[in-house]
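Deliverable D4.2, example record:
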Amino acid sequence: MGTPEAYGPQPVPQPGPDPVPQPAPVVRGGRWSHLATGADLAFMAQLVVAGAVFLATAGMRDDHGTGFAGGALSYAPRVLLLVVLAAYLHWLLFTLPAMALARLLGTTRWAAARAAVGAAAVSAAYAWGAAALWDVPFGWSAAWVGGTGLLPVTAAWYARHRFLGWGAMAARIGAVTGIALLLAAFGGFLLERTRWHAYEAPRLDRSRYVGEWTGAGGAYRLRLGEDGAAEAANLPLAEGHIGVWDSCSGTGTWRFEPQRDSGGLVHGGPRDRVTLTIEGCRFGDWEVAGTAGRPELFYVDRDPGGPGGPDVTILHRL
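Output generated by the structure prediction step:
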């Protein structure tokens, strides 16, 4: 015989809160290109910011009277195309192999460490190739290759760690890049106003210019004597030279012209100059550049007869 509890009325289940829907599992991996989402954007961003910092600190370097900061802006559209191409090649040749190697090392834990190991392995491989082909130091090659790949690999790891797509990564990288560009512009404004570490051309005694000068890896040579005699060998002609193979070789005189009010480009004063007079050769004044420990003489041909802008001939004292 059954008990009353077995056949009695059963309690009616009370309705509870609706179950929270669980997100669909995200499949790690996906397409090959998703291994490095946003890496190319990060590479382009770091190049753009580096260019902005270079322009912002232009006053700390010598432009040899050519105004390279302003001229660089005119080349910006073409440079941006090269940046896009470089970003794609870096994404294809560096970031994708690094992230693929990180994926092969495991898929559960230590994702950041695996990405770092993958980047280090790819950097070492390229550095070894550069050292073998061009006889460059392995350490410096690895540092350059790894340095350019640090931010792209970090961006790719962050995108996969957060399951972000291209749009989300573009928004984040764009915001960080915009802040960096604003800081670079503000820093450039402060440097221009305060003249902090601004470049100034050296002012040296005449005796410091006596001796041998060379340029273009030894192709150009100039000897300035204590008695005012000058001897040139293969100096490029300027201002209406006839052909690309023409050069200036011969003997003549030189004269040092100090400009006591000179203070470099930032103060607008003239530089110290050396006037070179050689028969059959046409030059203007050679101006002083470099530093007190490593002086330079340079001449600017502002009408070189080509679309590349002014030509600068620089000589270093031996």
